[in-house]
Design brief:
Shape: elongated
Order of helices and strands: HHHH
Number of domains: 1
Oligomer: single chain
Structural class: mainly alpha
Largest sheet: none
Helix content: over 70%
Length: 126
């Protein structure tokens, strides 16, 4: 069995830094969307024109933020050469409110653990 190809630690860390920011922004955007939906449907029973307008403006913005999150998660997944279930898990982190914050911490620990365990292109420089 051939040795695994080494990871490029610089690319991985750069990709993770972008993913980390996207995770936090997505988590906040999803919380805002949830608050808007609570105001629109639970507090005003779906009859408030104001919250309907706020929802119609914020929902596509949140969708765009989530798409950026997905792209950056995919980039990290490619750089780390993880299996497909990990990619699906990264996507799930951005769908469930508050989970992106915990998912970001878990992903950070996974990246650090794997960079320490797997060979990297920068190993010779240390």
């Amino acid at each position: 069995m051939p040795a695994p190809r080494p990871l490029d630690e610089v690319q991985v860390r750069t990709s993770f830094a972008r993913f980390r920011v996207a995770s936090i922004v997505e988590g906040c955007a999803l919380l805002v969307l949830c608050a808007i939906m609570i105001m629109r449907y639970l507090v005003y029973g779906g009859t408030s024109h104001t919250w309907e307008q706020v929802s119609s403006v914020w929902s596509p913005i949140h969708g765009l933020i989530y798409m950026v999150y997905v792209i950056l998660g995919f980039d990290l997944w490619l750089k780390m050469r993880w299996a497909l279930p990990r990619m699906l898990l990264l996507m799930l982190f951005g769908v469930v409110p508050v989970l992106s914050f915990f998912g970001e911490r878990w992903t950070h620990e996974s990246v650090e653990r794997e960079l320490a365990r797997r060979p990297t292109l920068q190993d010779g420089e240390r």
